Amino acid sequence: MLELLKRWLATAEQLASRFPAAAAHLDSWPAALLAGLAGVALLVAGIRLGRVLAAGGSAVVGYLAGMALAPGFTLWDLPAATPGFVAAGVLGLLGLASPELYPVLLGLVPGALLGARISLAGSAWMGAAAGGLVLALLAVLLRRIVLAATAAAAGAALVAAALLALSQLVPSLAVLGQRPTLLAGFAALLAVASTAFQVSVSRRTAPSSAFGTRGGPTLRD
């Protein structure tokens, strides 16, 4: 299990290392401003983009799972990240076609991978089934928080990218480019605050259902 967690951490670090390069594409203030505004929109009301968030979140889960399952992929001279991209495409399409599957996938895939490392009744398959079932049920029970956190994470990433790009153009923001830990901490704070805010708002607008029933946000929006 520790080995699997290390693989996920390595994949996450690899993705994070590409963040400055991605932010560099916002090489003009209008582009950075648009990215920042999009991020703010996601932080404030991104939970209403249920279908889009489900597809994006499912794709991220698929990529991480694919990279964890096939860390040493070598076939037909294809890129090492091929399993991750294939899994991302498959799960992303599933999330797009049926947004309600997103919380299930978010819990089922990591739960099964972790459970497989802990044999249950002497069987890795039993461990995978149990782990996947437990985390899938937990994610479904917390589906409102799952969707809000997905929107918040995406919004915080866009705002951070915009600030990082603007740090090259605005001297007063240069400290953000020089101290990435400060930027990461700010993004994490935004994500947590946004998650709490959007969960609170969604409960007021649709108190009877985590998916929303009468005008509230749903995973199919």
Please describe what this structure looks like:
This protein has 221 residues and is an all-alpha fold. It has a domain at 21-47 and 101-204. Helix content is 73%, strand content 0%. It has helices at residues 2-17, 19-23, 29-45, 50-69, 82-97, 101-115, 124-141, 143-166, 174-178, 180-205. Helix 3 (29-45) packs antiparallel against helix 8, helix 4 (50-69) packs parallel to helix 6 and helix 6 packs antiparallel against helix 7 (124-141). The longest helix has 26 residues, at 180-205. The chain is globular and about 60 Å long. It starts with a helix and ends in a 16-residue tail after the last helix. The model is unreliable at 207-216 (pLDDT under 50).
